[in-house]
Each structure stands twice: as C-alpha cells, then as structure tokens.
Amino acid sequence: MNPKLPYVLLVGAAVIIFILSCMLLSRGRRSPSCESQPRIVEKTGSTSQSLVFADLTPEEMVQVVRYLQGNLGVQLVDASRAKPSDNCIASVDVQVPAKAEVLQFLDGGGARPPREALAVLYFGNQPDPNITEYVVGPLPMPAYHRDVTVQKYGGKVPYHRRPMLGSEYEQVGAFLETVAFAAAPTFLKEVFEYDGTNVVFQTTAPHGFQSGDRKSWFIVFQNVSGFFVHPVGLEVLVDHSSLDMSRWVVSRVFYNGQYYRDMVQLESAYVQGRISVEKVRKAPWDGDFSSMKPRAPSAALFPLQYEPQGPRYSVRNNHVLFQAWSFAFGMSVNTGLRLFDIRHKGERVAYEISVQEALSVYGSNCPGGMSTRYMDGSFGIGRYTSPLVRGVDCPYSATYIDTHSLSETLSPSKRKDSLCIFEQNLGSPLRRHYSNLQSLYYGGLVNSALVVRSIVTVGNHDYVWDFIFYQNGAIEGKVQTTGYASSSFLHGDGLRYGNRVWEHTLGTIRTHSINYKVDLDVGGVKNSLVAHDMAFEMARAPWSPEQQIERPRLTKRVLDTEDQAAFRLQSKMPRYIYFAANSKNKWGHQRGYRIQITSFAGDHVPEASSMERAISWARYQLAVTRRKEEEPTSSSIYNQNDPWTPTVAFANFINNETITNEDLVAWITAGFLHIPHSEDIPNTVTVGNSVGFLLRPYNYYDLDPSIYSHDGVFFTSEQDFTACEINPIACLPKTASCLPNFPPFTYDGFQNM
Questions:
Q1: Does the keyword NAD apply (predicted)?
Q2: Same domain, 625 and 669
Q3: pTM of the full predicted structure?
Q4: How far apart are alpha carbons 132 and 463 in whole angstroms?
C-alpha cells in the first residue's frame, strides 16, 4: 500500500467538506424570506365608488331581518325550522341599483344611489299562500320596504314555485323514514339490512309534470362517502304538495326495474316472493371505490407558485386593481360570482359580467334519473360557494376572501376563504418571436394573468368558476366541472343511457349548459353588433391573367335586430362577432370587443317539450338583446319547480327589436355532453371539462396594449443578455432566490355545518 494514500484521501475529504460547506452557506445567504415590496398602483378611480356594487355586510343583513320582523305584521319563522304552512325569509341579498343611476354616480358626478336589499319571503300561513319579493332600504338603517313582485313578474308568484328549503328536505326525509318505510319493514331489513341510518336520499327536480305539482322522486343510496355512485335500486315518489304534512303520501315506488303502487304493495310482493331481488354488497363507511382518499403515499412535493416581491395586485373591499385592470366583484346568493365596472387602462369595457344559470339534463331508465333537469340557480349557486383549500383549489399564496350570505335562516352565515384572487404565470408566452433572419433578436412576454375564482358544490357537482384578466386586454370567463357523477341502479336496458362504472352503478348521460350575462360597454354605452368572417373568391392573377387564384376575403355584416343576433346552439355563427363602438381607432376601424365561445354542448331539450321555455336561454350559443332593467336575468329561481309556466322565459327577450347603436347585452351559453365512464370513478376530473368564453379587443387599441407591460423581455445578438438592465430574466437568481412566506394551513369548511 502506498504510504501517501491516506494523506491524499484526507486532503480530498477536507476539500469536499469545504466545498459542501461553502455551498450550504451560500445557499443560506441566497435564500432569505421573500419580502413584499411597496405596491405601486395606477390611479384608475376611487375604490370607494365600487361599494355601490358591494354585497351586503352581515350587519346590514341583520338590520334587514329586524326590519322585516317588525314591519310586516306577520310572524316570521326561522326558515331552517319552517313548515310549508309557515311564513319565513328565504333569502336576503343586495339590490343592485339601476344601471342609469350607477353610471350617473360613477361618471356624471351624481348622488350615490340608495343602498337597498332584496328579500325573498315565503308566505305559507295566509289564505293565499305566495312568494313575495321586497326591496328594503335605505341601508344600513332600513326605513321602508316595497313589494316589487308584480313589477318584476307581472303578478304574484304562486307558492308551489318556491324552491325547496332545507327544512322541507328534512321533513320529506322524516316522512320517508317514519311513514313510507314503516310500511315495508321486511323488504327493507332483508334486502338492504336497513337500520334507520344506512341509507340516504337524493331528490330530483322538477317536481312533477304540470304546474302545481310537487311530487318528487327520491333516490335511495347507501349512506357512505361518495354515496352518489352507490344506488341500491329503490326510488320513491312522494307527493308533498299539501301544506299539511300529515297529508303527504307515496304516489309510486320503483325497485329494480319494476313499479309499485306504494310501499305496502312492494312489501306484499316481496313477502309473496314475486320480486326479483338484486342485493347490493354493503359498502364500508369510506365508500370503498368511491373514496377520494389517495391510494398512494405522499412523495416529492408538487411545484408551487409564489410572488418573490409580493402581490402585484391589490384588493380593497370589493375592488381589485391589477396592472391596467380594475373591477368590482360580488357573490349573488342565487347566481354566484359576478363582476361590475370592468375597466382597462381606465376605460370601462364592461358594466357587468355574471353567471346566470347552470343546467344539467339527465337520461336514465330509472324514474329519478330520467326526470331530472337541475337548474342550479334555484338551489343557490352563490349560497353553495365552498371554502377553498390552499394549494389545491387555488395557489397557496393567493388572496383569500370571506363571503357572507343570508339564506334559509334569520342570521348571516360566513363562508371563510370562499373566493380567491391570484396572479398566475401560465407557463407559456403571451407573445414571442425569435428572429434568425436579417436582424437577430428575441422578444417575448410571459403570460401572467389575474384570476378571480370561486368553487361551488351543488349536490354532487363542483363548479370551478374563473374570471381571468390578461395583459393584452382580454377577459376570459371559464367554468370547470368536477365532483361525483350522478348514477342510477343498473338494470335492463340501462346501457342505452350511459356506461357501467361499477357492479350495480350506471353512470348516466347528461348535458351541462352554463349561461352568462355579458353587458359590454365598448367605448361607451351605445354599441352595435358586427360580424366578420371569410369567404373564398376566384380571381385572375393580375400578372398572369390566364391563371386563377382562390383567395380568402373578408366578409362584413351589421346585425341589426335581435332575431339576427340570436344564434341557435348547433348553428353556424360568424367566427368574428363583436360589439362595435361609435368611435374609431387610429387606423379608421370601429373599436370593438370580440366574443369567442369555447363550448362542446350536447343537444338542447326539444322545443316541443312542455318545460323547454323555462330553459329557453339554452337554445342559443349567443343571443344579443337590448339591455333592459326589467330583463336582469335569463332565468329565475322559480323556474325549477314550475318550468311548465316559467316565471322568466328568456325566449321572450328576443322580439326582433333594433340593436344598432343601443345598450346591448350578450347572453352566452357554453356547455358539454358528459357520458360518465370508468375514469369518473371515484369522481370526475376537470381536464377536458372546461368551457366558457373570451372577450378580446378587436381594433379597440392602435396596437397590442401588452407591449407596455413591465414584464416584456427583449435582447439582440449584440447585447449582453446576461445583464440585468438588458434582460430582467437574467436577474432571477438575485431577485427571486427567496423562500416564500407561506401562512400556516387552516381550513374552516367543516365549521357550523
């Protein structure tokens, strides 16, 4: 052995230790905690003005309830405990002032409109039960109320149209357990091992076949995690139309492909051995195949996004500023996320962008599935906004905002962290070019956009609602769907209506349709609708007349009437359709904002259907109408339970009025067909289930406004692109080498359930 070898090894080890120590020390020095820099915000108007659109505060809700309790002259029962024969407050929300009043305040120096609330009340304890809507004001100390029901709907709203309260669901559940099920003890015990706790019920809607009906199929599932995909084959039709709950009855029973008059007949047939029984394996409490518990242990952490110098946007009350963008946001208890007074570079481009309705139409060979047409606005899209989980539902470092609502109770409820706002690097360039011809250079801009998000869970469905603001002046409205697939018990010809996804589970076919209201104000309130497209024309080559050239040319058309601007769902629509201003850009073109829809919609319900008018907005991928205060929404919460005589029929909005140089609204429908498959177990993923629309500048500016972004990168072959002053990306090792200050993880989604 060479006597020098140990010394060589020792020296080598010392050098390695020294290098590693330097690296660790250096890394320690390069990884300080990120510190927020002073936020620079362009002045684009007073943030206090946005409060004209603000949701009610909990204190305002309390004052409205107190006022109603003391000034209506009737007893109001807490809706969470109300019987159908009681009077109660169903909901209280902000009453957004008329647009003309708001614009006079925002733009004309007018007085701030009075702050008011809209209260929906159920009057079941009176000779003529009905639904009444009151405007209550002024807030914060109400002194008046006025009945606006007739003004809004042309008459009183019949009581049978009322959305079901949670208390009514509980009362029907108690009826099923104590009255209906008591008539079939042997069947339930031997077939389902029923013990009073191991099944749950899911309702269907609408409730019947004609106005006045309140007959609901209740589908029975195993009471386990993810019960939506654990049907047991039993469905019960309950007539709960009477305000006297003692008069509720079972109208029909369905089990494993057969119909029975009631539970008594089912029990009798079972005892006599005249029923084909299909026993379902009892699932464990976690649901087994429906459990969302990961099947793999945690491993390397997924990538995270952070802001090395703090957020580049600001949120003050309900007002957001981001680069050249500003807007106000709110959360309607019925329709969910909505935006107002959206401005780019200080100029309003839209007055309102809001969700209107979410419709799903199901198919099945079971009665509950085949009769289901859910209109989620009736259940409350905003009401079911759910608390968000940091790092999954939104980036960990996003800004999280609490929302409040008053629905089916006398006290406001707080949904903590139920709305998030964040800037997101989308990981691709918004625009770029690498020049290797003539001059040598690179120019590009990272596609970093601001996202406003809420996630709503209505029954089995989860909707991820996004509004996204890009640096080039574009706005995107997008919804992604996830959650559990609804299912039916697999029997007979069930595979005509979906795919088998488990032993007894049929994933049932359904369509999803989402409607938005987009009130664009492009260069002012008055706009026209213009369509551009293309057509090929044949032309002689001027330099060689014997030759022909097929060349595309631009086609232009002004759409003058509402009928011309109503595009049926599967019809061909001009590929460029835009709201045109009365002003022109530098190049002589009308300034405009283009509407571009992303949709994979299934077919619409046939118009011959007796309930189609209630969802007639879904006939159209796009319909542009004159804006009217008396046409604020495309649907109504009352349409779900009486679609045969709809309270609001969108088809009535389209009556061939002139839409040239008018205040216009675009009603946009995006949707998709969902045929559940085995990969929807345990539940549906968002990938491929995203639809929506884009609003894009079209000759609105003289050039792309994103060229003024501070995020731009440009360098030539002759410049030192490693120098920070030339290329800010080169500075990232210095400017972004910090550890983000992530707050501790908290979640309040299981509080006060």
A1: no
A2: yes
A3: 0.93
A4: 30
